[in-house]
Design brief:
BirA Bifunctional Protein, domain 2, 7-stranded mixed β-sheet, globular, Rossmann fold, alpha+beta, 5-stranded mixed β-sheet, 16 helices
Length: about 475
């Protein structure tokens, strides 16, 4: 598994330097595994969410969206299995008292080994996890002499389960407060609203319910920047189908979701499907879409055939019927579900990694280089930078007019300061696909210079064509 830690570190630094991502509460030395999205990061993140939402709801007549609350009745999580089953094998170092997720510890060690050795170690780990063989997992850690990062010792406790849900209290008086959970996934908000949506939307099976929302997991070793965090965002869609048709729909959604990823211009060789070795308690099939990050192939999206587990569980615990009457076959049944679930933050990181490029532009005469983010125009935080060549001679006035014309349609940026070359470089670094320079010739013939980010080519176009050119590229 090839990794490029230097590139990964460069991307992390770039995110901070150019206003994409900041460590949360940084003035108080930050909070482990929690991040804030800056001015360009929040735009990019919103554009990713909008693109997903449009592709799921607007482009599918039989999929609708909801926005369920983060707080849910605590029995929800009993029914879903999270209270009893949402736990991971953990191990503590007796000297440092630091706790680790077993799979993270072994994965990190595998990355230090030769590719074949690392894969063999992970295959052993997968087999032991599948069998819930905690003694075997501890022996694997000890046999590989895996040390604690803090104490540097191999003095480990036994492996045991640790629940990953955050809990809190609802109620104004401590004695009367009820314990509830911060949701560890957004899916359950969809399941408990299945009948509400089906009846009010007069939905016929097959149909889907989509949602974007925050979820929370008490990850013990949150790592790899925003790849694994305690507070993150999911884009999930639950597709309700007739029992017995799940295999065909599972394959269809695998294909659909891969098409969506490739529609963003990513090299297909950067993606692959990875079937789950150990299935979740609710699934009869599951696969991850993995992308080749600089830190290796990692999961970005999961597609799961969840059977009728969730609705059946909620029907049992709530004692409310969660069934559908299918007029085509004159039958009542609990629908089966195919789930597509993608991490917004992981998709953000994928988009950054895929776009980031360091280019050497040196010539025989001079040294030159640039860092450019080659975002698809539809995702770029800023679509157009408007740059008057000077602050005088009426050029800013013309630039402001163009700004007023365009800003209703897409996000623009206006800048007068520094040389035009420096301004271009700054826009390259935040991924702006087009820069327009207003110069003295503009006053004569109403044309401007438009510069294309990826090729750095410049062309002279009529001022009134600028908006149309940018819109064309955004909507491609």
């Amino acid at each position: 598994m090839a990794t490029d830690q230097n590139k990964f570190q460069a991307i992390i630094s770039h995110c901070k330097e150019y206003g994409f991502i900041f460590p949360s509460s940084e003035i108080y030395d930050g909070l482990s595994a929690v991040y804030d999205y800056g001015q360009y990061g929040s735009e990019l993140k919103k554009n990713i969410k909008d693109y997903w939402w449009k592709s799921m709801t607007q482009l599918h007549e039989n999929i609708v969206g909801i926005d369920a609350a983060i707080f849910m009745h605590p029995t929800t999580w009993k029914a879903s299995g999270h209270v009893d089953n949402f736990s991971d094998p953990m191990i503590d170092n007796k000297d440092s008292k630091k706790r680790y997720r077993v799979d993270h510890l072994l994965e990190a060690h595998a990355e230090t080994l030769a590719p074949a050795e690392g894969e063999a170690l992970l295959a052993q780990m997968d087999e032991l996890l599948k069998e819930n063989d905690f003694e075997g997992l501890k022996k694997l850690i000890e046999d590989n002499k895996i040390k604690c990062q803090v104490s540097g010792t191999v003095n480990w406790t036994d492996v045991r389960q640790f629940n990953l849900m955050f809990s809190t209290q609802v109620g104004s008086v401590a004695e009367d407060a009820s314990e509830i959970y911060l949701r560890p996934e957004t899916a359950q908000g969809i399941f408990v609203n299945f009948l509400n949506v089906q009846k009010t939307g007069r939905m016929k099976i097959p149909f889907g319910i989509a949602q974007i929302g925050k979820a929370f997991r008490n990850e013990i070793v949150a790592r790899q920047f925003i790849f694994r965090m305690r507070e993150f965002e999911q884009m999930e869609m639950q597709f309700f189908i007739r029992p017995g048709t799940q295999k065909e729909w599972y394959e269809k959604w695998k294909e659909e979701r891969m098409k969506w990823h490739l529609s963003l211009g990513v090299d297909p060789a950067k993606y692959h499907f990875k079937d789950h070795i150990k299935l979740a308690h609710y699934a009869d099939a599951a696969v991850d879409i993995e992308y080749e990050f600089p830190i290796g192939f990692k999961e970005v999206e999961g597609i799961h055939s969840r059977t009728d587990f969730d609705l059946k569980q909620h029907q049992e615990y709530s004692r409310k019927k969660l069934q559908y009457f299918d007029t085509e076959i004159n039958q009542n049944y609990i629908p089966y579900v195919i789930e597509t679930s993608i991490g917004v933050d992981r998709m953000f990181l994928l988009t950054m990694c895929n776009a980031y490029e360091e280019q050497d532009l040196s010539t025989a005469d001079k040294q030159d280089s640039r860092v450019v983010l080659k975002f698809p125009a539809k995702l770029a935080p800023i679509k157009l930078a408007i740059l008057p060549l000077t602050k005088k001679d009426g050029l800013p006035e013309v630039a402001r007019e163009l700004m007023d014309t365009c800003k209703q349609h897409f996000h623009c940026y206006y800048e007068e300061k520094d040389s035009i070359g420096k301004r271009y470089r700054r826009q390259d670094a935040i991924g702006t696909p087009f820069c327009v320079t207003i110069d003295h010739q503009t006053k004569e013939d109403n044309t401007v210079t438009i510069r294309h980010r990826d090729s750095m080519e410049q062309e002279r176009v009529p001022l009134e064509k600028v908006k149309e050119m940018v819109l064309l590229e955004i909507n491609r």
